Amino acid sequence: MRAIVVTDESAGTAGMTLAERPQPTPAINDVVVEIHASGYVPTELTWPSTWTDRADHNRTPSVPGHELAGVVTALGYGTTGLSVGQRVFGLADWHRDGTLAEYVAIEARNLAPLPGDVDFSVGASLPISGLTAWQGLFQHGRLEAGQTVLAHGAAGAVGTMVTQLAREFGAYVIGTGRAADREKALDYGAHAFVDLANESLEDVGGVDLVFDVIGGDIQKRSAALVRAGGTLVTVVGPPESRPADGLAVDFVVEADRTQLVEIVQRVRDGRLRTNIGTVATLDDAVATFNSTERTKGKTIIQIRS
Ligand SMILES: NC(=O)c1ccc[n+]([C@@H]2O[C@H](COP(=O)([O-])OP(=O)(O)OC[C@H]3O[C@@H](n4cnc5c(N)ncnc54)[C@H](OP(=O)(O)O)[C@@H]3O)[C@@H](O)[C@H]2O)c1
Predict the structure, then answer these.
(1) Which of 188, 193, 213 to mutate to test the pocket of ligand 1 (most atoms within 8 A of CB)?
(2) Whose CA is nearest to atom 8 of ligand 1?
(3) Which of 16, 149, 240, 300 stands the most exposed, by the fewest C-beta atoms within 10 Å?
(4) Topology of the domain comprising 128-250
């Protein structure tokens, strides 16, 4: 099969190549999925799991990409709950070969059914950003209706999901980002917007939940805004700053079938819009990932049209 592979950690996206790889075979509880669309997160090549397996052995050449939508073509020994021919979408294991490929072997529990009226490219755009927003707001942030959420990077892939889900849940959402992102963040449902380069973050007053996708000084200044009993949730590594009278939680998104079903149902009934910036083919994937243009939402690679 054809796949994007990386072998050299120091090369970054310039080291990506389109190569021929062996067809994956399903392990116990796996399925093999014929991938129609794949999602990629720009920071993947800095994650240790891209380069080593759980025993810390070099696992290159490895295939990046962890989001997928496609069709099940084979079941492993003991696999239950999915059928050959079923449309699925989900989140691939960080330590195994990923989804910038024509096929992937993946644990069935990491997948959910993809309804027939949802495009494969939309399905592939949802797992990481949708699950990250869901888990950050509801599991780690313990959001309650009527609370105020400070959603950093509100026009980005995660931020647009955070904004929409928090607003649907009854929160007041203050988005942040670049000046050029104001209209997009408001369009995705933010009640207010702070241009981090030109406006004062401190003017937003107290908030109950900070959803941090930026870190550093922005995280530190945001921690100071958290009200007593509130939470700073971050997805960019161990927190460097903590609220004086609240929690700071760092997490890595996990596959969750029930939450994927909730997310895709919202896409079907119009409560949630995905945020796809670029769609490219597998042939154009390496050039797309090496583009110097600013990313504007998810980059989706269409493996099959
Ligand atoms: N732990 C986890 O499970 C998990 C899951 C998903 C994502 N993540 C991480 O979360 C981060 C965001 O992911 P994403 O997919 O949402 O990325 P994205 O689509 O690029 O969105 C991030 C947004 O924040 C903006 N931004 C970043 N720094 C800023 C600054 N200093 N001032 C103003 N705006 C700023 C970006 O603008 P520019 O593009 O102009 O910088 C962009 O609009 C990434 O680091 C990703 O690796 C972690």
Answers:
(1) 213
(2) 235
(3) 240
(4) Rossmann fold (3.40.50)
